[in-house]
Structure prediction request, 369 residues.
Amino acid sequence: MPMYWKYVNPVNITFGEGALGSLKEKLAGRRYCLVTYSDNPYFDELTEAVACSASAPSAIVRDVEPNPSFNGLRGNCAEFGRASSTPEVIVALGGGSVIDTAKVLAASGKDFSRVQAFLEGRAGPETLGRLPIIAIPTTSGTGSEVTSWATVWDTDAKKKYSLARPELYPEHAILDPSLTLRVPRGLTLSTGLDALSHALESIWNVNANPVSANHAVYAATEVLEALPALVDHLDDLGLRTRIARASLSAGLAFSNTKTALAHSLSYYLTLHHGTVHGIACSFSLPAVMRSVIGHDPTCDAVLERIFGPDLRAGADRLEGLLKSLGVSTRATDYGVTTEDWRGAIEDALVGERGRNFIGSHEAVLTEAA
Prediction:
């Protein structure tokens, strides 16, 4: 952990049961575009509730993909551009894909080609638009409500991009744990494991600092304790609240560090094998943890606050927990060959997120290949 460090997060946070009711106050009379999911009765209900309590939106964008892609976002931006009156703020009501889509809309100025040109390095940030965002997550895991980037996929070219600009931090994040009560088990599990990955990846990270570490320790400890109980008691608001707080803290941690190797590895599995993001970025955590033990005393000390003094035993317990939740820790169980997985590890280590990892290439290849 560096001697010199900084921590910044400008998002105003409102948290608690019933927090959705604060949206009208946050809008302060501004025209807004609502971004949410389509073909889902629950989000039909939420859309109606928001319109009744906070006034009707001037535009609605609902055809959001689970992994926002160039093709889908092009249509989303066109739909956004058809608003009868130009929105002054975007309200993102949904999971990480909705919040990421809202960030793309905010940067697009109604034209996705501007965002695509920036992502592909053909244009500078001055070409991007900016519009305030109010993020209301309905899942607990991505932390996108407190970060300044969005994940964008070029599925045709099998590439993943990160749209990262300081202007994309949401203006407000409204976290109402009661909104997550109807999230099914599979999604509850995968998003919870995404939060765990965010927390741990912010620790074995070249950008780690004491503030991010404190957020990460709280988040990881809570997820490890509460998630196994929650997946068997999905209607428990107390457990939902704990995981929502943990996800928020993990977001506050990696909002300053970004992710590292496990996430870099996940992109290969998601693009080439369709593995759900939260599983793809968490199944390798035990192996990555083993590879970093003893590499850096400060990192070890932070991990010991979560796993106790015997970190090898802690990694074994983490692996056992994942397996008990039905998550295999073997890459070959996700459809990848041993040879391709080794190549994916080597590529991930030199990728943008992989370069955030503090461990050695040799140790990772020994533990994870």
Notes: The chain is about 50% helix and 10% strand.
